[in-house]
Amino acid sequence: MKLTKTSVANLTYTGKPTLYFDDEINGFAVRVGSTCKSYQLLYRNKFHVQKVYTIAKTSQCSVQDARETAKKLLAQIIMGEDPQTEKLINRTVENVNQLVQMYLDYAVNHLKPSTIDSYRIYAARHVAPLIGSMPVKEVRRRTIQQLYEDICNGKTAVREKGKKLRGLARVTGGRTTASRVVAFLGSVFRYAILQEIVDTTPVNLIKKAPERKRTFFLDSEGYYLFGKMLSESPLNPQAIKALRLLAMTGYRRNEILLLKWKYVDFSRQLIRFPDTKTGAQNRHIGLPVVELLKQIKAEQPDAKPEDYVLPGRGKGTHFTDIRLVVVKMKKEYPEFAEFSPHTLRHSFISMGVALHFPDVAIAPLVGHSVRGMTNRYSHTNSAFQIHAANIISTRICELINGDASLIGKELIWEPNAQGI
């Protein structure tokens, strides 16, 4: 039948939903249900899957308008598009906030919890205020470029009360944060492409300002002053232990703060991490680290394998206030203005290089992968790694403990009788 204003008006419900097809346009029909009538287009997409696209209720538009819409949809289908799928996607993901949440729900099962936590902060503190309500289809490269500039200029900076007791949330922005937020959005839009929500990513060819690279590290004199500062400043005892462990291992901050006794193997001078930034790892430690860990263990006679090496104030918690301690330290000692816990990681590696240890000796101690084809085929044995850990950590420990005679003195390791 030819669908006209009169013919559509005369159609009545027959007890079950019924489709009445138009004679002129293939797939164009009126669906008569128990409560309303609606214009629909039935078609098969490029994969020959049948789809139904509801154009509008008959009370919302005329037959002629619905017919024109059906023609436009058919033209899109001929070009390989799938208007019904597009409609569902637009309904599910109306703006950037919804797309970001969809990505985070997906990423929970694919990324580390710490990464997810950072992504949630980027989303809530930077993406949502700037482009969160923008329709996904309207996000362009210039949108992301402007977001980058706004974060660099501190537009999303804020200081407010945090969720924790006496907590203060400090969002500062800056170049580094801006780059990380853009990288996060890059992952979001790559996911959107895989889900066929968008065809291309707008996070491309973003012009970024050069980030300020960290150049500050502790040389022999720096370690000596660092040790003097630890002994003179009234720091939290837990913070001093954490900083000493970080200095003598070169580990990442959370690798020390989240360290548990069950990971420590004293007899083998080994720490067995079940998970790190790059997966599970076994890392050898030097004798000064072993001695310090034994001293800490002696102060915790009732400690269980599941307990943290550096416990917090509450039961089952770990020490977390190292950042606040570092902030106070930097105020008291201007020469450490650029210091951060990560400085100790750079410094440990630099000390290893200064002692002329090769990359294949230093990398396993700090959890780095060794690049280069030759290094990929090189394997260092445990004895050599322990030897390197002993030499590097001993030199750092002696400097921190105040041995000024070592300042500027070069120490080169030599193979012993066992060839290590």
Q: How many domain units?
A: 3
N-to-C SSE string, H for helix and E for strand:
HEEEEHHHHHEEHHHHEEEHHHHHH
Largest sheet: 4 strands, antiparallel
Mind telling me the CATH class of the largest domain? Mainly Alpha
Our estimate of the beta-strand percent is 5-15%
Mean pLDDT: 87
Count, helices: 16
CATH topology of the largest domain: hpI Integrase, Chain A
Q: Largest beta sheet: what is the strand line-up?
A: 1-2-3-4
CATH evolutionary superfamily of the largest domain = Intergrase catalytic core
State Rg. 32 Å
Q: How many E strands?
A: 9
Structural class of the helices, strands and pairings? alpha+beta
Could you walk me through the main structural features you see in this protein, from its secondary elements to its overall organization?
It is elongated and about 100 Å long. It is α+β, with helices and mostly antiparallel strands and 420 residues long. The relative contact order is 0.07. The chain has a four-stranded antiparallel beta sheet with strand order 1-2-3-4, covered by helices on one side. It has a three-stranded antiparallel beta sheet with strand order 7-8-9. Strands 5-6 form a two-stranded antiparallel ribbon. It contains 16 helices and nine strands.
